[in-house]
Amino acid sequence: MIPELGHFALILALLTALVQGTLPMLGAAMREPRLMALARPAARAQFLLVALAFTCLAWSFVANDFSVQNVATNSNSELPLHYRVAATWGSHEGSLLLWTLMLGGWSFAVTLFSRNLPAPMLARVISVMGLVSAGFLLFLLFTSNPFERLVPAAAEGRDLNPLLQDPGMVFHPPLLYMGYVGFSVAFSFAIAALLGGRLDATWARWSRPWTTIAWSFLTVGIALGSGWAYYTLGWGGWWFWDPVENASFMPWLTGTALIHSLAVTEKRGAFKSWTVLLAIIAFSLSLLGTFLVRSGVLTSVHAFATDPARGVFILAFLAIVIGGSLALFAYRAGKVGLGGAFGPVSRESMLLANNVLLIVALASVLLGTLYPLFLDALNLGKISVGPPYFDTVFYPLMAPAAFLMGVGPLARWTRTPLPELAARLRWALGVAAATALVAPFLLGRWSLLVAFGLFLAFWIFATTAVNLRQRLLASPRRGVLAKLRANSPSYYGMILAHLGVGVFIIGVTLVKGYEVEKDVRLDVGESVALGGYDFKFVGVTPQPGPNYRALTGTVEVRKDGRLIETLAPEKRIYNASGQTMTIAAIDTGILGDRYVSLGEPVSADATNIDGPWGVRIYLKPFVDWIWMGAFLMALGGFIAVSDRRYRLALKTRAARGFGDAVGHAGAD
Amino acid sequence: MKPRTRRFAWIVAGLGILGIAAALVLSAFQSNLVFFFTPSQVAARETPQGRPFRVGGLVEAGSLAREPDSLTVRFRVTDTAKTIPVSYTGLLPDLFKEGKGVVAQGTLGPDGVFHASEVLAKHDENYMPPEAKAAVDQAHKGMTMKSLHQDTKAER
Q: The CATH number of B36-142 is which of 2.40.50.140, 3.40.50.620, 2.40.37.20, 3.30.465.10?
């Protein structure tokens, strides 16, 4: 009964989404307030219906209703409760429902927080979101119904893929989707502005907080996914340039460019058409990412099924959304007009360079991700593009971007005399260069890579410090606290996010420069020395788990003969699927991780667990700085959004701007 | 300089930089492509010399052997028509099993042994790596004619 209720709610949601997607849009075109007024209630009703459907599915998982196909395939009565809840989005169908739920949630948020938007603008924004939602609901209902019944009901479920039975599964997909789907708001604002012929600084100010918050969620989502891969895949890597990772990274790169270009549009009125284009691209890449991951084009943990009907549907949907919005852009962009002029050395030019670098990086990731798929689709052979390609292309492109991050915030709008800029940067350059020369010696070994990475990181730190100092000196208030308070949250958000990039660079550089990896064969009682530590393999003992049997190894770590810790890597065999999982034991520290994972028994008799084992031992200096940096970036985004300016601006704008908004609508 | 000439100079400089970037990207792309071959193609010597490539198929049942006192393993990869011997030093992934799909990346030695630097089997149990599946399918297509008779007999 409950699954049918969910199914019915989805059908009603589709109908509501169609109303939401058409009537308010029509109302905006005809200047009919009654039709426009439908936007808000329709969006809210649609969200509640999708939420009801989602709850029904989650209930089926929690209640172990194995008469539902989706539950029978992706859950098991032995599965702990929190993983049964997370299994709701563990399948293709469930994750699409989560996608739709997020979209509904974002639309709901728009109805709440854009109370002061001019009615035609809001009607169009909500309509565009309704159309996207209708597309996804159609897809769910016709190709991927999560409530499909299984007749006769299964006695027991097939279990959730053991790789997904991890706390990461509870947080990573919802946060990632929050980011992906959040770009739909910026996209809808862009389309609404193109339709309404109204693209100005106010539009940028409306879009900015939505974009920043979506970007922050995406940043956290990607960082969690990366951390999850680090400790569960047992390889100790934090980024593999896997197509699935690239699918989430491409919207992130575009979103980063979009945040910066929106800043220029809001402050200077420049880059308008470019900003609109970026908003369209960012959401298109989110859709493309969903397509890549969900359609089974890439076979990996993330691709749950291979069904051509789904692929064709998503491809058609992509073509309509991307093609349609680009066509609209081509038709309307000419009317957008140009912004203020700026000199070759100015904050605008720096941000422009930053955008170009990010987009070139995006294009190279896109090439490496899609080219193998094209060749395969055309039957021209199977190839793969290795991580070395991405490394050789990506780092050289991002290095100048990191350098510009130091210069940009110090440059003035419109034009900055070069000598003045150089004078401000002298001190920072000295600090960065000195650190780059000296620090690698202190860390053990000087190498060009490490020196260069540290130079960039400390360049960002030092220039940020210079920037903050100047801000404080320029402030007329007395007392450090009062001076600090004079700056806006969005300024501190920017500072924090930039510092996050510096922290991230330190992590990447030092782990690449100084990591030690060793796969060894260890007999019981045997030791191996690595990076000043002694790792002694004591043996393996069987241990029961809730829905698996584990073999727990014991590895004693000594430094100078003194026992500092005992690590317990595990090998798990899951009861329902019989699948094996490696759980690494990681000692996490601010200066780096000690990482031990078990391979398999390597004596002649493969079932003898008391003999020698293959053991993987890694030392990962400063690896946690990578994720710390990402979280700082996201935190910066959240702080920036808390800026009162966005809310105040909306109010004053609404107070004096409603009349001219209606006037604008007449231009349709 | 007239504003127009200056703008032109900027555009030329911008395009030049983009062109150089594109050239660098494409050359890095070219040199990092890894091609995939089936055991049958390897047996027919279609593979490039001295350049890493990928080979995929099924791990032949009963072919896995360990060298004593090291982490080196030897196994054979088959597409059901031809097999190729593989040697690999390191830890095998969790989903590596005899009779299951596998993809290995490495180089072909003069002795005909494929020296793998990486063994991939990081997929769900129920799905084969797409390359491995393709290898087996292709071999089947080639064999259909001659084995059709035997297959029907076996089915009875």
A: 2.40.50.140
